[in-house]
Amino acid sequence: MGKVKIKNLKKSFGELEVLKDINLEVCEREVICIIGPSGSGKSTLLRCINALEVATSGTVEVDGNDITGAADKDINKYRQNIGMVFQQFNLFPHMTVLENISFAPVTLKLKSKQEANEKALKLLRRVDLEEKANVYPEQLSGGQQQRVAIARALAMDPDVMLFDEPTSALDPEMVGEVLNVMKKLAKEGMTMIVVTHEMGFAREVADRVIFIDDGFIVEQGPPQELFGAPKNERTINFLNMVL
Amino acid sequence: MSIPELVVQNWSRLLAGLAMTVELTIISLIIAGMLGLLFGLLSVSKKKSLRAIALVYVDIVRGTPLLVQAFFIYFGIPAALGIRLDANTAGIITLSLNAGGYLAEIFRGGIESINKGQMEAARSLGLPYSLAMTKVILPQAVRTMTPALINQCIITLKDTSILSIIGIQELTQTGRLIIANNYQAFEMWTIVAVMYFIIIMILTKISKRIERKMSYGKSEN
Ligand SMILES: Nc1ncnc2c1ncn2[C@@H]1O[C@H](COP(=O)(O)OP(=O)(O)OP(=O)(O)O)[C@@H](O)[C@H]1O
Ligand SMILES: [Mg+2]
């Protein structure tokens, strides 16, 4: 069923029209990888899904809730079900790893402190960082920080996870550890929308790859099709450049 | 009389003056802290009208001398409204509004120094703006603001001496009154200056210690 439904989505920054007409439906348990050249609107599209950017027109529905037209209070509620992982991690530097993860559920009074901490430890085990529970983010490597950021998003028990180039800020030797966590998540059935330059990951994990250029979805399909036999000329050019 | 003799002779008056100075400073800074936080938050608001309110307030405070602000509040406003304002109240209002303006700027700077990703990360977890601000942004902002905050405390403490002009018996005014009796200007102003100096040095020392305690690390992302 449609977990995320995007209809005629347009987004402009002033004069600049970044998203021109995006239509996309993401099913439950589906893993979507979004690829495309720099500046094509990939981040903007992702950020429209959890209303970090306000769409200029069109609708975005997540779990049947219309994000685009919702009041602030409702958006806060909807966002609890939409995890987001950023390129720059954005961990809270004044909190320990454990506090980073339990912070939102506790602050929003969804869990008691003890429950949240127990859950946080479980999540840390899942991303293989149990021993780092009580250190501060700055004491972690980039790869470790990003894994904590994933755990932090998972602490809200989201239905959908958005990733915006989660490995682009990492040293090459740390990319693998983050991608592995994401692969595990995909296997467990998480609905994921991943903006990435990691074509290997897209090929292996994605159910569907979406190529965006100049504010449009130019081409989409299963990875073996899109990578193996791209039809659109722009897709072919892009893939020639990155592969 | 020598300086030590003058100190002994006027000790209780000087101490009372110093106490008044400290009291004015503390009360004013508490009020100014709340004003500064409020207007600092307004100045980073998404709403233009709220930002404009903060801007006007800060510009007025920065664009007029403290002495004129004191006169306006002590003489001007009571004259216009036909009310009576005692000097201490007027002094506290003046210092609070004045320091509040500068603190608003310090809060704005502190908040704006925090990476935008912090607010986005907090909001993406479902936190409302207010909680994201108070639990994520402000704790980090206050850390970066600490030196500027302490600097403003010292400035406000020194600014209390200007209030001697409307007759508040703080340390400076106390010195003037004593000199009016004994004519020992050099010795008395030395004593008063040393008293200001000592209390400000103590504050500086304490603040250095706080600063060191508050730093959880250098890098922030
Ligand atoms: N807040 C903003 N204000 C103005 N322009 C913006 C804003 N955010 C993005 N843009 C512009 O929108 C266009 C698309 O940006 P976006 O970040 O979505 O691209 P992207 O596909 O994610 O690129 P990259 O691969 O470099 O991350 C760019 O031209 C960018 O400069
Ligand atoms: Mg981007």
TrEMBL record, chain A:
Main subcellular location: membrane
Keyword Coiled coil in annotation: no
PANTHER family reported for this sequence: AMINO ACID IMPORT ATP-BINDING PROTEIN, GLUTAMATE_ASPARTATE IMPORT ATP-BINDING PROTEIN GLTL
Subcellular location: Cell membrane
InterPro entries with a match to the protein in the record: AAA+_ATPase (IPR003593), ABC_ATPase_HisP-typ (IPR030679), ABC_transporter-like_ATP-bd (IPR003439), ABC_transporter-like_CS (IPR017871), MetN_ABC_transporter-like (IPR050086), P-loop_NTPase (IPR027417)
One GO MF term: ATP binding
Lineage: Bacteria, Bacillati, Bacillota, Clostridia, Eubacteriales
Family membership noted in the UniProt record: Belongs to the ABC transporter superfamily.
Protein name as catalogued: ATP-binding cassette domain-containing protein
Gene Ontology CC annotations of this record: plasma membrane
Membrane topology: Peripheral membrane protein
SMART domains per the UniProt record, alphabetical: AAA (SM00382)
Alphabetical list of Gene3D superfamilies matching this protein: P-loop containing nucleotide triphosphate hydrolases
Keyword Cell membrane: yes
Keywords of the record: Amino-acid transport, ATP-binding, Cell membrane, Membrane, Nucleotide-binding, Transport
Any matching Pfam family: ABC_tran
ABC transporter domain boundaries: 4-239
From TrEMBL, chain B:
Gene Ontology biological process: amino acid transport
GO cellular component: ATP-binding cassette (ABC) transporter complex
Subcellular location: Cell membrane
Keyword Transmembrane belongs to the record: yes
One Pfam family in the UniProt entry: BPD_transp_1
Membrane topology type: Multi-pass membrane protein
Keyword Transmembrane helix: yes
Gene Ontology molecular functions: transmembrane transporter activity
PROSITE patterns: ABC_TM1
Residue stretches spanning the membrane: 14-42, 54-77, 186-204
Alphabetical keyword list: Amino-acid transport, Cell membrane, Membrane, Transmembrane, Transmembrane helix, Transport
Domain of life where this protein originates: Bacteria
Residue stretches making up the ABC transmembrane type-1 domain: 18-207
Database matches in PANTHER family: ABC TRANSPORTER MEMBRANE SPANNING PERMEASE-GLUTAMINE TRANSPORT (PTHR30614:SF46), MEMBRANE COMPONENT OF AMINO ACID ABC TRANSPORTER (PTHR30614)
Family the entry assigns: Belongs to the binding-protein-dependent transport system permease family.
Name assigned to this protein: ABC transporter permease subunit
The organism's taxonomic lineage, starting at the top: Bacteria, Bacillati, Bacillota, Clostridia, Eubacteriales
